Each structure stands twice: as structure tokens, then as C-alpha cells.
């Protein structure tokens, strides 16, 4: 297969095709990943989920990603994923752009993307393929099949594969102009800087997909947005970091970084085993939702809960 260099001329956009300007703008900010709260019987708790969404919206968040990893995407059933999408679109209304997480096999991902489109969502985020054998050309084919099925939606690949080259992303976007941004989650700022430039730095919106801990270094290399699970707990903290990064005030951004450091270290420990657990524990300590998570995650041990509660209580929430 012949790849297209990002420096070569691009095919003009088809007449009448969407410009995705609003979607691109929505990605250049705090891209919140809401948790999915569970009721006492283990089912999704719609009322609590809506309340958590209202808290984010009232806190100034304008981009929401239902069915992200912090929302326990892989632990939800297909009907639960549809429910979460529906609740998010209904609750947000015109207050936020909706970037719906989709994935699994191609037919499932396409069906989820079309469901999101029919509800009025503006974008989909395509989860990193979990198949153990992923070729670079196969990665392009997978995302192309999804993007071509919903040309009206902005498409954002969630990229965690350090082996993928920027030229492959450029190849995908040559075929699918609705691929407008990237959630880049390889923990290597130098690799990100090179990848973004190989793919086309100005061509895509670059979202730092490893949240606040990596946002300062990734912004210095060209990112203009970052994802956040912490935002569920303290929207103002995430927005303070965004404001500092947008203005180039790295000393202030790093003060926020120090403020959240221990919280994010707890989430990242042991291969991010407690990534969602710590967020839900903090929300539980604030009386906002139950702490329960689904396997393969696990609730935080009693001995570690006090530290999380103390951190959350210390933020201006």
C-alpha cells in the first residue's frame, strides 16, 4: 500500500461537506471523560449520571466524552453504552459538544457511531483497537471503515500505539476528511512532537490523551486540548490549568500540576489499575456517587480511601 506524505498536496474538500470548525474548537480545551455511576443493584444509575453531568456543565465544561475509559467503556454492555450516550446528549443539550466513545469490532463501532449521530452528537472518539495483532495498514482500514460510515461526524482516533507513524494518520485523513483530531496517549512527549509534525501539526487538533499530568509537556509540543478524568471531581482545577496553558503561563500550569500530582500518581500506580477507582472514591467522599466499579477494576481498599478523601477535600470545589 502506498502511503501519502503529509507534506504532499491534499485533495480539496468536497463541495458541501462539513467544515468541522465547531468540532475542532471543542477539542481544543478540557475534554471531560465522565464516570459512569452504578446503583446499589449494579446497574447504571441514570439520575446520578445526569447530576454529575450537570455539575460538569455548571462548572464550565463544554466538551463531554461519554463511553470513555474513565466511564468504564469496556465494562458496559451495548445497551448501557447506548443509554449513557442518550443521557449525555439529552442532559447537555446545546451546552456542550459530545464526543462519543466507540470501539470493539467494526460493525459494533459503526452502529455506535450511527446511534450517536442520530441522537445529535457531533463527534466520535474511536478507542484504540484491542486486538493483539494490529498492523499499521490494518489500523488505517479499521478507522477508515468507521469514519466513512459517519461522514457528518468529526472523528478522533484514540492513539496509544507507539509503533504507529504519523504518515499513517495522514493517509487516513486523506481518505476521510472528517478525521479532525487525535487523542494522543503515548507517554512520550518527544515521540508526540515528532508524530504530530509527521502527520501534520496544523492539520489536526492534538489532544493530550494522558490528561493533566502530561498536558504541560504536550502543549509545549503542539497540543491544544487535554482529556480529564479528574475534572469529574474538580472542574475548576482542570480549567485553571487550561487557562494557564493557553496563555503560555507554564509556572502557573505547573503549580496546578503539583496540586494534582499525588491524586494522579494514585491513579497511575500499578499500571493504572485504580485509574477509575480513585476518581469514583473521591466522588464518593464528596457524596456525589457510589464508589463501585466493575471488573477488571476494583474498589479502593479501606486503608487507601482516607488519602483520596483528604486530597478531594483540599481542592476548591
UniProtKB/TrEMBL annotation:
<dbReference type="InterPro" id="IPR002220">
    <property type="entry name" value="DapA-like"/>
</dbReference>
<dbReference type="InterPro" id="IPR013785">
    <property type="entry name" value="Aldolase_TIM"/>
</dbReference>
<protein>
    <submittedName>
        <fullName>Dihydrodipicolinate synthase</fullName>
    </submittedName>
</protein>
<keyword id="KW-0456">Lyase</keyword>
<comment type="similarity">
    <text>Belongs to the DapA family.</text>
</comment>
<dbReference type="Pfam" id="PF00701">
    <property type="entry name" value="DHDPS"/>
</dbReference>
